Description:
heterodimer, A: alpha+beta, Arc Repressor Mutant, subunit A, 3-stranded antiparallel β-sheet, 4 helices, 18% strand, B: mainly alpha
Amino acid sequence: MLPKLDPLLHSELRLAVMSILAGVDEADFTYLKKQTGATSGNLSVQIDKLTTAGYITVEKGFKGKMPRTACRITPAGQEAFKNYVSALQEYLSASKEVK
Amino acid sequence: MEQIKEMTAQESLLLIAETFNKSREGILRNSAKYFMLWGALLTLTSLVIYLLWHLTGKPQWNFLWFAMPVIGYPAAALMGKYDVAVPQNEVSKMLSGVWRVFGAFAITLSAVAIFLVPMNVSLIIVIILGLAECMSGVLLKNWPVIICGFLLGVCGAVFAMLVKSETQLLVFTLGGVLLLVTGLVMKLQNK
């Protein structure tokens, strides 16, 4: 039986955010916005969802005089992301076997 | 990017790979400008000292080497100030680590050679410069950079042993040009 895909990660924007954060120490909101091409409002909503799930942490502060929102993936987020990728690979293997 | 789009497993994996690569390329492209900064500084400093030493016959111009970190570190910090949005990944952190270690060795050994124990510091620095360049190539998975670093270390060491006084400095001019080239390679590799 195929594993269930994490619904929180099975969404284009949230998955893109998690993919970026999985490869870096932390990333600014502005960087995530630029990389994903999402609007500020949409990105904020998705970041809130990932934060609520405990997949990422958000730290608001200042760099010089500029406000800064830094996002960082948590160990739970890393684990969920890893499981999600494994599940996707199982889905792909299964579809190949069917073909 | 829409958050509600339904994706297949293949589309999801493709999105992960594309996002990851795009982010990685952006980070390395950002690191490239630091290679270019230090490359330009090294080329310029070595040429200025070479010319001054050659024209006046005074090796004391070598003290100008200490101007390099004095100019370079604040300049790099200033450049970093405008990179607020670019994070660090494992490769950029390791590259930065390699060159920080090189800088620490080069400055300390130069100071030791000038004030404590006279030694052929050009020979030692050119070897560790070649090594740092070579390791950068390994981290960037770029053969031309690896080969350039290797040749700089080996040929530079032979050159430093064969020639004397100000002519030795020309090997650092070549090293500076190689750093500039490494920066350009990184920029072009990660367009």
